[in-house]
Amino acid sequence: MYITTCISKTFVLYVLVLLLVLYASGALAKKIIPNADAYSELGQWVVDPTDFGSDLPPVGRSLFDYLVTEPLTKETVPGGKGDKLVYNVPFPFEKLIEKLDAQLAKDALYPLTVKQVLVPLGRSLARNHASPDFFEYPRVVAVADTEPLMSENESGIYFKDRLYIGYGEKSEILEVISYNEKAGRFEFQVIEDYKPGGEPKVFYTQRSVCMSCHQNAAPIFSRQTWGETNANPHIAKLLKKENKEFYGVSIDNGIDIPFAIEEASDRANYFSYAQLLWQKGCRDQNNMSNEIRCRANAFKAALRYRLSGKQGYDYLSRDFQAETISKIKQQWERLWPKGLLMPDSDIPNRDPLLTYEGDRKLATVALLDKSANHVLKELLTVSNIPIELEPLNPRPPLERWKYFERTQFDKFITTLSEFMSAVDVHRLDNRLVSLARNAAATIDAKHMENNNYKSNCEFIVKRLDIEKLRINFNCLNSENENNKIALIGRVYIRNGLMSKGSIDKILFPDEYQIRDINIDSAKINTGEGGTVVTLNLSKNGLLARRIDGEGISKVIFDLPFLLAGDASHILKESNKKRFQGKVSLVMLNDAAILDNAVSEMVLDAEQGKIDSFDTKPIRRVSLMSNLFDRLGMRKIKWCCEDDEKMPIPMQQ
């Protein structure tokens, strides 16, 4: 993510001159953008690079604003009082990152969950801000790509893939791209006077300038191998000559961190596609009920996808096919007959230390006013970036989707599912399981929990040491073809207790399958001549579910031997032995509970009581809070739609 677009008084002279010329010439009004018309014959852009929108948020505020605002008190502003919010941007930069990090779930791989790289020789419009001391004052790019921290009473701010910060010490500014959940778009901001003793001021900046490079109206980042960053060993070596670390960022971070940043920007790139299909793909001006049901079924599919551990969703469901897929397909053919063009969030990799040869001609900006063009050309000349690597160049589409097919719907649903956090999904999972098990305990709801699937198994018991056994199970057949399952996995037993285990795959009669399932716990009961082992399963910390929503409450094995003490009585003189036994799956049907809750939301939306399925952008708060209410869940404080107490947004 090269936040290329924000402008400050402290930028180098040619950037200031460029801005003045752009204002004087009216070039901003003429839309300073790469020529998108070159691809118009191929289809319509998902993000129109000629339509910037207003510089100030049309509604809502950026997530960055929610991070750096605090109640107006004597502590934040001398003499302040009341509950209005004011900006309080932490300085130095490390303090800002610490504040962000404190709100994110911890990542075992990194000390800080915020991913940061150093870019001394980059390609932003502030590319020469540190000249000539590039390696003494490298630019920092910081990205939030992890889930919010679990809080008992709050939803947490959903920063994942939605907050990108650039910092150049010599320019004394921060450049920020962060998502506005209420408006359904990324906002571009600068924080000026970001220096020791300064009073940081937060502005929304000119989107027209930003989108000259950010042609997707979202973050961008280079492709592998990220030669401009400290992942490049030659860049790292030059940085180490100046300092051991910069702004708390270690120089020796390898390629994992820039890879994580590229993945985050790639995911963020598809937010606009999901918003487009949600708002326009489901649109029905003649029948609001059809429009509501189109979005509701898409929402339900996204929930199924997340609750299944991102395995999939029921694409062939009758409701999805009739009310969502067919509707979007109709709209696709009507609105985008040539197809859709997906913008590219990746710019070419560049190693700034290499000597480039060949064509040095300058990048062109097709609609840039001639009176300003020479100033931009001067900027490009000084930056010494070859034409083929210049982010101002028009980028071809990442993908062209001519027809609305399974691939396009999958991308819509998987991206839509990213508008709910892992915390949201875990809360939902716990509630659904609780409701289903409570219902299963009643006499009139035994259908909620049933032994629906059985199979014969082969158990291979192997001695690993004097106290430890490994039991591999391979269950492939049943007398009844209608409820047979295939199940493959293993458990490890030490002194009659399970120490660990996993299931590679469960395959159901209808070809649904669940892979890579965790065994959380086991209950072992021995009887006359045999043992019953009951396993509790999970998938990514959730109840293990089929993609149609049906969950596995437990797995029960009937073993033809006593599983107690050491293995001597089982294996005797051998280290390995085969046994025949049986398995049954106890299913927990909480799918109906979720269906009913979404159906209640549909009825309320049709009556105008909620706006979750209106033509507004996808909004986590509206969707998840209304769903939780209909499931009778405890009230929590949600973020981030309420902007009533925010300071007045300022335009640069």
Topology:
Elements: H1 13-25, E1 44-45, H2 63-68, E2 69-71, E3 85-87, H3 93-101, E4 114-119, E5 139-144, E6 163-168, E7 173-180, E8 185-192, E9 201-204, H4 207-210, E10 221-222, H5 233-240, E11 245-246, E12 249-250, H6 256-269, H7 271-281, H8 288-307, H9 318-335, E13 340-342, E14 346-347, H10 370-383, E15 399-401, H11 406-417, H12 422-440, E16 449-463, E17 468-477, E18 486-494, E19 497-507, E20 513-527, E21 530-538, E22 551-559, H13 568-571, E23 576-588, H14 591-606, H15 620-630
Parallel strand pairs: 1-13, 10-14
Antiparallel strand pairs: 2-3, 4-5, 5-6, 6-7, 7-8, 8-9, 11-12, 13-15, 16-17, 16-23, 17-18, 18-19, 19-20, 20-21, 21-22, 22-23
Can you walk through the features of this model?
The protein is of the alpha+beta class and 652 residues long. The chain folds into three domains: 13-271 and 343-415, no CATH class; 273-342 and 416-431 and 593-630, no CATH class; 445-592. The chain has helices at 13-25, 63-68, 93-101, 207-210, 233-240, 256-269, 271-281, 288-307, 318-335, 370-383, 406-417, 422-440, 568-571, 591-606, 620-630; strands spanning 44-45, 69-71, 85-87, 114-119, 139-144, 163-168, 173-180, 185-192, 201-204, 221-222, 245-246, 249-250, 340-342, 346-347, 399-401, 449-463, 468-477, 486-494, 497-507, 513-527, 530-538, 551-559, 576-588. The strands form six sheets. Strands 16-17-18-19-20-21-22-23 form an eight-stranded antiparallel barrel. Strand 18 (486-494) and strand 19 form a beta hairpin. Residues 3-34, 356-372 and 443-448 have low confidence and may be disordered.
